[in-house]
Amino acid sequence: MATAAALEFEKPIAELEQRIDDLKRLAGDASFGVALEIEPLEKRLTELRREIYKQLTPLQRVEVARFKMRPFTLDYIERIFTDFIELHGDRAFREDAAIVGGWARLEGETVMIIGHQRGRDTKDNLKRNFAMPHPEGYRKALRLMKLAEKFQVPVLTFIDTPGAWPGLGAEERGQSEAIARNIFEMSQLSTPIIATVIGEGGSGGALALGVADRVLMLENAVYSVISVEGCAAILWKDNKSVDAKERAAKALRITAPDLLDLKVIDEIVPEPEGGAHTNHEAAAATLKTTLVRLLDDLRGLRPEKLVRRRREKFLRMGQYIG
Question: How far apart are CA 61 and CA 104, in angstroms?
Fold first, then answer.
């Protein structure tokens, strides 16, 4: 990872990486003495990554989840699946590039993939609308889910969005109805669904792809009903200060361990040391293993049992027993 791209709390890591890179350039192929000096530094780098990431605050996990160098949906598709054929449009209004989807194969089995897609630069972010879908994006996702159901193909969703687009046009075209329709239809889809929060899972924009038989979260992903900035603005009229955002992040319980404890998610997918952005291939390999295992578990269930268990799973959330 380039030094300039480091997150604020990653600066010690970036400085040590730069030092190692400089030594390697000096060493060339012949300098055995410099090579001996590099070895303990690389060991220290691994330890430093482990120490820093073990002590991340909830707000720092939000920063990691939003980091532009993390693998996005298309990065996982490239590394996990084969024979991907992207499908476009909702057959009603237009194509929405904030959500990508299509047929693919996972270990030879046909699956339907649907996920939010972020951009890494200004041009791509504008094309993808900063991963904030319009109603037609969710309607495209639903069209693909129903297509998968028709052929009894599993649906795999990848969640990574700040939330649904709140613009006037989106509201005019029925944003809330599109999200509600997806939630309703996913609750009764008669084929296995696995949802994975790979980055930021924000509000109903995330939940529209999140009603699944198994809900996974990457170790440094976040999942919440509102952004930390929005929460801080509502509760303390302050969405700028670090203290207010840190309080909001802690109160929302948005990290993977919190949500596993609350039984909102089913499993945490480990990330490489220092986060998924340090090694896309390793992150994808771990997620692939998890998806294959869970699909094996779900494949044998009859459709009616699958739907019943899915509904019961979500109806249990938020229950209070006095």
Answer: 31
Considering the four listed CATH numbers 3.40.630.30, 3.90.226.10, 3.30.450.30, 3.30.420.40, the one that applies to the domain covering 61-315 is 3.90.226.10
The dihedral sign for the CA sequence 30, 31, 33, 39: negative
C-alpha Rg value of the chain to the nearest Å: 21
pLDDT digits (tens, 9 = 90+) for 106-147: 999 999 999 999 999 999 999 999 999 999 999 999 999 999
255 DSSP assignment: B
Question: What residues does each domain of the chain span?
Answer: 3-55, 61-315
Beta-carbon contacts of 57 under 8 Å, excluding residues fewer than 6 positions away, are 246, 249, 250
Considering only 13-22, 146-155, 194-203, which range has the smallest mean pLDDT? 13-22
**pTM passes above 0.85:** yes
List, in order, residues 6 or more apart from 40 with CB less than 8 Å away: none
What is the percentage of the chain residues whose pLDDT exceeds 90?
A: 81
- Spell 30-44 as b/e; 16+ CB within 10 A means b: eeeeeeeebeeeeee
Tokens of residue 121, six digits = 């630069």
Alpha-carbon distance of 211 to 200, in angstroms, equals 16
